Fold this protein.
Amino acid sequence: MEMRRCVAGMLAVAMCVTVMGGSAEAAAAAKPKLSNKKLTLTVGKAKTLKVTKAKGAKLTWKTSKKKVAVVKKSGKYGGKVTAKAKGSAVITCKVKGKKTYSLKCKVTVKKKTIVPKKTAAPPTQAPANTTTAVPGGNSPAATAPAVDEPGLKPDLTSNSILKRYQGIFEHMGSSLNYNGWRGNNDLRDEATMKFVKEHFNSFTLEDEMKPTGVLGQWDHETISKEEALELGYIIPDNYTEDRVPKLNLATLDRIVEVAHFYGIQMRAHVLMWHQQTPDWFFTMNYTGGKVVSPEVMDARLEFYVRTVMDHLLKQEQRVAGKAGSIIYAWDVTNEYLHRDNQPGSKTWMTVYGDMGLEPTYVKNAFRFAYDTLKQYGVQDTVTLFYNDYDTYFCSDDLVSLVNYINAGEEAKICGGIGMQTHVDVDRPTLDEYGAAMDKFLATGLEIQVTEMDVTINFDPDDANVVQNKGQTNEDQAKFVGDLMKLIVTKQKQRDKAVNPKGITGITIWGLCDTYSWRGNFKPLLFGKDINDPKPSFQAFLDAAKLW
């Protein structure tokens, strides 16, 4: 009997503990939470913190340093934090209900990046046709006029790339950075931008617009569809998931502002690429686990393409008064023909399989992009490009691909071919390069040399090792001169009835060797900095004389 009483007592205690434990867990689950424990803002920017699981509670917001950051109640469960000055502060939210909780968020405020103050009002029309005063009272070089306009001749006495190629190619550009990982923050440096304005009328972002720049690589955040819609995101009807990735669009907004300030147009690079797209973007719940179905990925693709494009078209309207006035071209898809060169990573091919030269998802990306341009009425002035490297070795496949993209469409939704032109003095031959360009011109599409650099002493078996071939800057200059003469000749002799626009742009992939992604192989026109012209710079200029 005594044993039974003892066992019964133990069971009663166990049940009590279980109930109490369950109550404790419920209480923990009901504890209010703050949307951010840490927050980084630049001076003048604001972010709203939100408290969840605080129904019926009274919220009081405070800041530890009013000079650094202030907080103001926003809605029923939010507190809007505004950055005032560089430093750090702690934002505290006191949540008073049945119990009282003190929730904290550490706010770090960074100094605002200063772009030189305008001395004249920025242009309100397309930068390609305007001149804007720059700080110090210096007037920037006029942008290149449209190709083949009567009476326009290159200024063969000028050392400006832009002036030398005036009337030959509509756009002369370079790749630039806003937050360059090598420290080359070109777009935020006044002296660099003065140089850029002298030589170019367009630029391509090296990294900031690639999918990892917009989505984040590892440190990413998802938000509800409701929150996404409040931010202006485009959520397609077939998007069945509850959450979407939060996009880093603020940096791109600033870049558009800088482009407008300096009166320089921009190639948007790139919306779809198997490289530099995070693995988690292809997985369930964006967690990096199991890969999603093609149907789910279709919706994600549409969300991403439409949202990024729509946002930047609206930003152009805000900044310049007109959509399509700053971004004149978009690389929709990059390097599909080399889709299998990312082993061990989740990519578009992981989801869709290998679809050969008829990839439906690539065609869909162009459809989404073209439809977005149509919504703003700029489909005839902004061109969508397919962009790839080693195109001189896969020209037939590339032509087949763009023909597939455009097949059955109301218009050529892929309007241009980008020839990256990462070449070496040993490869390709000029004949190989010229033959590929002939095939591309025969399509009637715009052709752009999108990523030009010319390496020396390059080891094709190990792209990170300099092979001592005895090649010099003079060897590079000869190849650069011959290559540019070839491109100028192709533009001059093309059949204008077949291809009226022809080659519409040349983009050099960087300003100087020091900051080049292939810097070991000295691939650019300038050496240690923009004040260090190499022989290839003069060779590049002189090729315009063929016009």
About this structure: Confidence is low (pLDDT under 50) at residues 1-28, 113-151. Residues 33-110 form a domain with the Immunoglobulin-like fold (CATH 2.60.40.1080).
